[in-house]
Design a protein that fits this description.
The chain is built from no helices and 10 strands. The strands form 2 sheets. It has a 7-stranded antiparallel beta sheet with strand order 1-4-5-9-8-7-6, with no helix packed on it. Strands 3-2-10 form a 3-stranded antiparallel beta sheet, with no helix packed on it. InterPro entries: DUF427, DUF427_sf.
Length: 113
């Protein structure tokens, strides 16, 4: 199994969708997994969850557990399954519980500020 490393992400991070700021955090976590690009996990309390709508999608990762997905809904668009969360992660990655990660792309940006 690929080694997973979690550390506090340096600095302050922001996530934007459709021009709106969904959240900003200086308590984000950075998760590194093998050769994959690091992923920033935001504390749930730092995200405007009113923009999130739980979807039916779920996935399973042997190293993290079962992920639940959310779509981002704002005035101009819906970005399907753009957010995921391990609500009951396996013990080895317990730090990511109550955190949200984002699928970045044209409509969703995660940046250090």
């Amino acid at each position: 199994m690929t080694k997973i490393q979690i550390r506090k992400a340096a600095g302050t991070w922001v996530v934007r969708s459709g021009g709106a700021v969904l959240g900003e955090s200086s308590n984000a976590l950075e998760l590194s997994e093998g050769d994959l690009a690091p992923v920033i996990y935001f504390p749930r309390g730092d995200i405007a969850t009113a923009f999130l709508d739980r979807s039916d999608k779920t996935t399973h990762c042997a190293g993290k557990g079962d992920a639940s997905y959310y779509s981002i809904v704002n005035k101009s668009s819906v970005t399907e399954n753009a957010v995921w969360s391990y609500e009951d992660p396996i013990a080895a990655v317990a730090e990511i519980k109550d955190h949200l990660a984002f699928v970045t792309g044209d409509t969703v940006k995660v940046e250090q500020i």
